[in-house]
Amino acid sequence: MSILEVKDLTVRRNGNIILDRINLNVDEGELLGILGPNGAGKTTLFRCILALEECEGSISLFGYSNSKRLKVLPFVGYLPQRFSIDANFPITVKEFVGTALTTLRYMSKRAYMLKANGYEWSIRHEDNVVDKALDTVGLGYAKHRRMGLLSGGELQRALIARVIVSRPLILILDEPFNALDPDAQTRLYELLRMLNKDMNITIVVAAHDLMLLMRLAKSIACINKRLYFHGSKEECLSSDLLVRFYSESAMHIHMSEHG
């Protein structure tokens, strides 16, 4: 059953086409990797799904299309490409993660909407739910630390812990591996696999590293303004079109970094 459906999605800005007729389905329980170079439109795609960007075409979440999907957006967890917080801002990691409890209460009132469309969601009344979320992401040791003092990898895990508290049905991550050292990347990779397998959270993750996505994802969508490929990673390996696209993307990245 598709949890997300994107049909003929087109975005134009100042006469320029940013996304051109994107068609994409994400099934419940899927772990989809979205591959594309910088400027390919990955962030724009996510912003459209979250109703933060005007677009043509249609987008459906949990069976609710276009403006009606606003009612079920709280069931979507989103980690933006960039998130920063002032080192002196007086909020601890535990307090920050705990802010998701307000969203959780709101979601519990709307769960009937999902059930009517065949999707299951239920609140779990557990003690110390925030502490458990921090332990799940391996950040229990830092729960009393100020958010602004976390490393890049710790910050990503704190954001995911906040998402876990609200128990979303789908998690969207925009370039979460950027600026992380190899150890932090591995921890995040293992965490996402666990969330998908053990908690059955549908995950969509964007990156411009094909090899990383091939390790992590069950299926791959290749985007550079338009959709070049969408299928299993086994099909991905045998796709001449994708190999050519990836080579062009790698050259694009190299030129932008060394130009």
Please name the defining characteristics of this protein.
about 260 residues, Rossmann fold, disordered C terminus, alpha/beta, 10 strands, 4-stranded antiparallel beta sheet, 6-stranded mixed beta sheet, about 25% strand, globular
Explain what this protein looks like in three dimensions.
The chain has 259 residues and is an alpha/beta fold. The N and C termini lie far apart (45 Å). The radius of gyration is 18 Å and the shape is globular. 39% of the residues lie in helices and 25% in strands. The strands form two sheets. The protein has a six-stranded mixed beta sheet, with helices on both faces. The protein has a four-stranded antiparallel beta sheet with strand order 2-1-4-5, covered by helices on one side. A hairpin with a 1-residue loop joins strand 9 and strand 10. The chain has nine helices and ten strands. The chain has helices at residues 42-49, 93-98, 100-116, 129-136, 152-166, 182-198, 210-216, 233-237, 240-258, and strands at 2-13, 16-27, 31-35, 56-61, 64-65, 76-79, 170-174, 202-207, 219-224, 226-232. The chain has a single domain, classed as Rossmann fold.
Largest sheet at a glance? 6 strands, mixed
- Estimate the mean pLDDT confidence: 84
CATH level-4 homologous superfamily: P-loop containing nucleotide triphosphate hydrolases
Instruction: Quickly give the structural class.
Output: alpha/beta
Approximate helicity band: 25-40%
Inertia-based shape:
globular
The CATH topology is what?
A: Rossmann fold
Name the CATH architecture.
Answer: 3-Layer(aba) Sandwich
CATH class annotation = Alpha Beta
